[in-house]
Amino acid sequence: MAKRLCVELLLAATLAGCATTGGNPADPLEPFNRAMFSFNDAVDGAVIKPVAKGYRAVVPGIVRTGVSNFFSNLEDVWISVNNVLQGKFQEGFEDFGRVFINSTFGVAGLFDFASDMGIQKHNEDFGQTLGRWGVGSGPYLVLPILGPSTVRDGSAFLLDTQADLVFQIGDVRTHNSLYGTRAISNRANLLDASSVVEEAALDKYSFVRDYWLQRRRNLVYDGNPPREPEEPDDEPTKK
Amino acid sequence: MNILYFSLLALLVPVAQAQELAPDVLVKSITQEVIAVLKQDKDIQAGNPKKIEELIDAKVLPHFNFTRMTQIAMARNWRLATPEQRKDLTGEFRTLLVRTYSTALSNYRDQAIDYKPLRAKPEDVEVTVRSEVKQSGSSQTVAIDYEMEKTPDGWKVYDVKVGGVSLVTTYRDTFSSEVKERGVDGLIKSLAAKNRQSERERAKSSKT
Fold first, then answer.
1. What distances in angstroms separate CA B192 from CA B88, B92, B141, B175, B188, one per listed residue?
2. φ and ψ of B64, to 5 deg
3. Which of B108, B165, B180, B181 to probe the A interface (max A CBs under 10 A)?
4. Interface predicted TM-score (ipTM)
């Protein structure tokens, strides 16, 4: 279902792109994206954010950390695969070690002992793997509910969802309630960041877009992106 | 009482000493000082934004170069601005960044901050101070890097990178499309309007 929705969305986005012109070359679908962004913002304000706030107010911190760790541990499996696909065998091996340690000593992932032992968590997904393989990000694309993405990352996300361990669970009710819990837990972790964005942004849409595109680029290159050609007047000689 | 507290802190760290500090030591000591105040001050914990701003004003702002930050955010449009407009832009942008920073600080809850060893030669005049913040409730860390330059008044921050992304350049597109549509004065007006709106919201929420 989610897959079909995404495919239809990509189609819609492509069609919308034909009829529009945008100011930013990375965002030719701006009118469509802006509409989707306001829709997401409205849904977030009406439903997701209040639930996440309630979750944070009611559920004790130690339990929230456990929930977050549990899903993070499941994620590490696919992160490991992506590191290997990108030829980063050492990182892939570390991720595998994290899953092993946290699933056993960490009681099915509720505790993140691996981080305490100094085995750091990585941030990988199939979109980043494609980026590493040289696939350009394509136009910026705001997905319904899921938020900022690009055509490359949105397409790669289809594979990410297939590989998602929660998705593999056959029982629909279990799998839906896990999806819901994960979404709320993730949103609750972002409550502080989103309040900062409200203060920071002159235009929230373009602020989030520009941050997101740079952030993804940074992730693809694991924190060391090649320098973009600087405009000559970016930083004129200092006084 | 708090004024007394601030002046006591100020006595403990004389300005002359701050000038001689290495950039990473400077960032670390300021952060520790600010966190120590955050943890003790009851008004700040109750969410008093004025108090947080006073704290930032006293402790953090002297170590930032806002003119350069505005210049980077303006990119090529900096040339279009008159000296008067540059002053206004810097002032409004500074207010916006301070408020953003104080919102971020008011969310602070015992996150552990880890400083990376500084990789710089003694003769360097620009360095990056790297730190990692471990978020509570999540095993992901957020990298926060400070781009710093050496000036006669000690080291100054001219950009902050969150997750590897420059906060200042994130404003570039917004600024340039604003200037394209409404000119430099239009941008100054938008910034001022945003600042006033946030102030009103803040006044409203502190009354309720």
1. 9, 6, 34, 13, 6
2. -115, 145
3. B165
4. 0.78
